[in-house]
Queue: 2 jobs
Job 1
Amino acid sequence: MNVDTELEVWRQQWQSDATVPLDLRRKVERQSRFMKMSLIGEILVTAIIGGAIAGWAARSPEPGIVLLAVGTWVYIAIAWTFGLMVNRGNWSPSAQDTAVFIDLSVRRCRSRLAAVWFAVVMFLLQVAFVLGWVYHYSPAHRTPFLTWLFFGSVPIDIVWLCIGAFFGFLVWYQRRKRAELAYLVGLKEQYQ
Amino acid sequence: MKSSTATENLFIDAEASDPLDRTTQEHHFDRLVVANGPALTRLAASYTNTLSDRDDLLQEIATALWQALPRFRGECSERTFLFRIAHNRAIAHLARSRSQPVAGEEVEVHDPAPDPEAELVGKQRVEHLRRAIHHLPVVYRQVITLSLEGLGYGEIAEVLGISESNVGVRLTRARQILRESLENQQ
């Protein structure tokens, strides 16, 4: 078979499948709306938690409450800056050529893997701060610290469960990102 | 070879109005999807294993296109712009799915037409070709699918960010593998 004829036959066969899923724009609009709602949700949660704690500190300006409010806002600021840095470009237009896009994806993947360790440190600091604050400013400080920490109450047990779930998620996320990075690096080598 | 005239000069208005208003964006998006929907669907199918994955990827491509439209200023042709977005999203999808279990269900091409014997042979050939392309390494799959969509060497080079000679080398190799694969299937 002549080579050009061969390509032309393949082309006709390939293009004979003209399926297009229905309502693509409606789906896109729904997804765009969902992305906006997610962002609004995150802002609302921040505003409610940050606002409530700031309001509490304004009504009862005791050192402990002011300390909690300042600590919470510092954490919120760091978490937002970090979140914006990590997610930057996630949904930005990806109209660069494939070679540039793969290079960029490799860098994003590496920065996200590095971000896992930052998240661990931030989370541990926040948990230590909140638990320390609760222990110090509640009647709990009459109990020995370690007894309170491990056998204190149901809310503390829930905190431990959340910590476990968070670290479980981080391990899963890190594995996933490593696999993604390995694949992208392999692909990048073929574009050099 | 498919012509891109259906969507040529689509963004003349876009360059005049900055940024695009919502109605103009919707209009451009609809026209691009109508003109290139089948090509995008075929591309998505070549990167995925199941119909639901294909539709997910297609939606991801469409969302990226929707978001990229207001910033398109005609630095490249519309087809180059469209296929760049599509292949980039597909690669991102592939990189993610490599780290997740892949479902076993194979994509089936549904055709609403009746199913006489003569058409069956044709359908089988199309299905063999689709499977053979699906099993090509990504770098070859990209050049062959772009070529089958009617893009020339220059356009493929622009989409992928490689030289035209490299496109030629990859295309020759892709065709060789494809030919062998199709012969083995028969």
Note: The two ends of chain B are 27 Å apart (CA to CA).
Job 2
Amino acid sequence: MELVTSFLAAAIVAGTPLLFATLGEIITERAGNLNLGVEGMMLMGAVIGFQMGLVTGSPIMALLAAMLAGALGASIFAVLTISLRANQVVSGLALTIFGTGFSGFVGKELVGQVAPDSIKMFFKPFSLPGLGNIPFLGKVFFNQDLFVYLGYLTAVILGIYLYKTRKGLNLRAVGENPGAADAASININLYKYVHVLLGGALCGLGGAYLSLVYVPAWQENITAGRGWIAVALVIFATWNPYKALFGSYLFGGLDIIGFRIQGTDIQVSQYFIDMLPYLVTIIVLVMVSLRKSKRNAPPRGLGVPYFREER
Amino acid sequence: MKKTISLIFVLLLVMAILVTGCSKPEPKQEVPKEEPKEGAKTPEKKVKVGFIYVGPIGDGGWTYAHNEGRKYIEEKLGVETIFKESVPENQESEKVLNDMIDQGANVIFTTSFGFMDYTEKVAKQHPDVIFLHCSGYKKLDNMSNYFGRMYEPRYLSGIVAGLKTKSDTIGYVAAYEIPEVIRGINAFTLGVRSVNPDAVVKVKWTHTWYDPAKEKEAAKALLAEGADVIAQHQDTPGPQQAAEEKGVWSIGYNTDMKEMAPKAYMTAPIWNWGPYYEKQVKAVMDGTWKSESYWGSMKDGVVELAPLTDVAPPEAKEAVEKAKADIIAGKQKIFVGPLKDQTGAVKVADGVVMTDEELLSMDWFVEGVEGKIK
């Protein structure tokens, strides 16, 4: 039992960077923009957040810098795809390549340095008063660091925003049918810009979790493919922030389960386990398309540049 | 829309393959054989020394240790050196080698197993340039291979861990299932059990050399299973930090990792390439250099145990000093019978010393290790 709780608690931690990146990509795609630059934005957030944390020693500044860096990366994508209407897939891939190179370049001097104690203390796991004492669940969910709680909060806020507010409805309309949304006098470009940038900021936070809390140190290519898992997770979660919460922790668990079953009698190859998140995504995709439920379908305007003149 | 989705999937698959495919190949070793042959002639000349590294010099581990060796010869011999970091272990390394030769390098150290075949190829094309390859087994007239008997200081670090553990469970974050790593785990376990016969060493494989997040995760799994000392074989401080966060203790690797985890770190088996590099480059300058297969020991100073910190148990210092003196004097062999394997069967009979050949192809765990070699 002890082992199970410790595994589940570790799965939450491993899933947190995925959660932020997935939420970021969900609101980006809800605005009809497919940004495949998640990996790049995460890396930019990771390196800039770490740099800022090292220089100032302030966790708040580090988080703000990481969000800014992610948003900056997303702004490149936004200008290319929203204003210039370039191909979204190509622009996103370019952003990934740019972000990888940029972070390697900026982070060269940071390799081998450790996050300052002030940041380590700030993100030390603590028990939430009341909730932390619930048997089992308290240990798993409410004895975590501040960043993890921020993750829960962000997912819930985004869920409420998307499904319960007028602006969220507008956003969904922009993603589904920009023409109709435009006719309803919604400012398409403004919505797209705001949400693409916000998405980038969340991806940056996801990266910063790795460099500031999870490892905590900067290392080249620290994300190690997590950005791509996040892209898969968006589909897994069927563009729903609440499901993203579940999906991220599930994928986080898949990420670390290999070490936990090593040495037991269960014989599974590590490489097979590394493959599981992608396999699960494909299965979910197949199930979703078989059921043909409108609720689970991707935003219809996803990946299509919007030209008012071509309506 | 369907098109876009399928496009995403193709891309995801491609990235998945790229991401998982880029791992460091597993080093293998063969027995260093001394063969007599005509030495490569190098008249006294100005040397320019090139270094090719597999990681960043700031990794605080493997590459950092090699770079310290580079700085050492720069200072001691006043030679000019050039280096290139994070060179991938593929065709690219050949390009880097040729580029270094164009820049006038005439002695080149290639410091990772994966550079072996490319070093060999370039060495054949440039008989006037001298190559030294770390951790491989290929040798030409102008190409040496060299490595160190890391298992000796690992045994010593095992003594420290064995004295420190309270739960009698020690976690070992292991890299790949290759003889070098297995040998290290066995020597470590023998060290642990020489002072604490009840202790067990639990092993988890990460299949990485450099992935702090993953290695930390493996250490956390070991801690959850009751380990209170963590040792490692990768080039990052991830496992050290896992131990620090849990408030238990750790044994590092490659270099002194004290700064990474000041409250956990006790000591580390470390590399000290400087003196060997100096000797080799000096020999080149004097024209006496000959290619060889070198497996340096604690006696040569290539490998050693980092100073014990205050965290280490007080009685460890004496025990380590004694064992160290005996090993260096040749009085104590580490892999000497009776050695039992995990099932308890006697694998090496009483008094028999394992040969280098056996050590270099070791593929079984000694008694006291909990883990599987697939």
Note: Chain B touches chain A through 49 residues (CB under 8 Å).
